[in-house]
Each structure stands twice: as C-alpha cells, then as structure tokens.
Amino acid sequence: MAAPEERFELTLFVSGATDLSARAIAAARALCDLHVGGRYELSVVDVHDDPSVAVSNGVFATPTLVRNLPLPARRVVGDLEPLDRARQALHLPAHHDALVRLT
User: Fold this and answer.
1) Is CB count within 10 Å lower at the N or C end of the chain?
2) What confidence score (pLDDT) does residue 96 get?
3) Cβ–Cβ < 8 Å for 66, 74
4) Considering only CA atoms, which of 94, 99, 2, 62 is closest in space to residue 75?
C-alpha cells in the first residue's frame, strides 16, 4: 500500500495524434487524478517521434502506460478502460484509500 507522501512517475506511450492516443491520454490523466491526486508526474511519449525510447523501455505496442516509480515497475498495454482494472494492474491506491490518506 502506498504511503501518503509517495510520488508516482508514469509514462504513457502512444502512437501519433490519433483518436486512440487522445483517449489513452485522457484516461491516463483521469486515472492519475482520481487515484493519486497531485502526487504524480505523467510523461507522454509519441513513439512516432522517438521510437528508440519505446524500444529501450521494452514497449512494442501502444498505448502502454508504465508506472516507473515506485518500484517495481508495472505496465498496462492497450485500452485503459475500465480505469479500475488499470488501477489494479498498476498497483495504484483505490480512490477511497487516496481520499482517506489526504484527509
């Protein structure tokens, strides 16, 4: 379980300016806002602009959301909906847990 002050670093890999990429970015932001509030940094990498970053991170499909910190790293490949499934895969705190810790 995450400590209240624990920071989360995530990277979302998308492929071009497509509807799928836009949906993935919106879902990743919603997921982070809901479950880790102001305790996260989300980077978005377009594999069309920088394919070497994707390869060096072992990303071969998009969208892929990687939780880099805290370790161990976790990832979700494909659609981030439903958000709760993605939250569980990334081991993010549940919305209720996040609210309790912030109060």
Assistant:
1) C
2) 53
3) yes
4) 62
pLDDT tens readout for residues 31-88: 999 999 889 999 999 999 989 999 999 999 999 999 999 999 999 999 999 999 999 9
Q: Are 10 and 68 in contact (CB under 8 A)?
A: yes
The β-bridge partners of 82 are: none
Structure tokens at 86: 């993605």
Question: Residue 67 burial (CB < 10 Å; 0-12/13-18/19+)?
Answer: buried
Cβ atoms of 90 and 32 closer than 8 Å: no
Contact, 35 vs 98, CB < 8 A? yes
